[in-house]
Design brief:
Layout lengths: L11 H9 L3 H10 L9 E6 L2 E7 L4 E6 L8 H14 L3 E6 H6 L1 H15 L11
Parallel strand pairs: 3-4
Antiparallel strand pairs: 1-2, 2-3
Length: about 130
Amino acid sequence: MRKIIPYNKKLVPLAKKLRQNMTLGEVLLWNEIKGNQLGYRFSRQIPIDEFIVDFYCKDLMLVIEVDGNTHYHDNQPEKDRIRQERLEFLGVRFLRFDDLDVKTNIGWVVNMIWEWIERNGPTPNPSEEGN
């Protein structure tokens, strides 16, 4: 049974707005992971705890972040680190990709996600394996 992670309901309107204004990198990645294309359901712009993450798979407890230019200015890297540590404390796991990598090498990004799922995805129960 997966862990239920709380979220701030006040973030829902902002999450909806962010879904309507995704970056090109986020749109490209969303087109590759939506609709169970990787064998798992991902959601986009989802509130978790006090934060909104780019993509989240509940079954894997996996966040995928696309880091654009704003992630490299001022004290944003420190904010990202604190945010990630907080969510990891709640049991969430992270994959981060640079926006430029997503835009110029989406195949590599999707392959990295596939590899992560193969290494870290849930192990099927014996009844699910057909034993």
